[in-house]
């Protein structure tokens, strides 16, 4: 359970960093630029920690899949970027795949 909370922190930090990347305007705005660097630092540190107990493929699939879906939601809500039906379908499949990995996979780190 602790590992999954750290993975969640890694995901949230990555979403903040990626969302701030757009706001940094090519690293010309200091505060969003600092959020990018700090967010990715936290994200990769937490992700590395989870690899002690989660298999690399599973941890990365969850991290990138949930992160991708959440960044799309941030883009839609905060940046007013539209999501068409294929985008919504693709994000739904990513979320479904993440749920399948978490609920049914029996792979272990060792």
Percent in strands:
under 5%
Span between termini: 17 Å
Low-confidence stretches: none
Report mean pLDDT, rounded to a whole number.
92
What does this structure look like?
It is a single chain. The chain has 110 residues and is mostly helical. The protein is built from 4 helices and no strands. α1 (2-23) runs antiparallel to α2 and α1 (2-23) crosses α3 (56-77). The radius of gyration is 15 Å and the shape is flat.
Can you give me a brief rundown of this structure?
With 110 residues, this protein is mainly α. Helices cover 77% and strands 0% of the residues.
What descriptive keywords fit this protein?
110 residues, mainly alpha, 4 helices
Please write out the topology.
Elements: H1 2-23, H2 30-50, H3 56-77, H4 85-104
Helix pairs in contact: 1-2, 1-3, 3-4
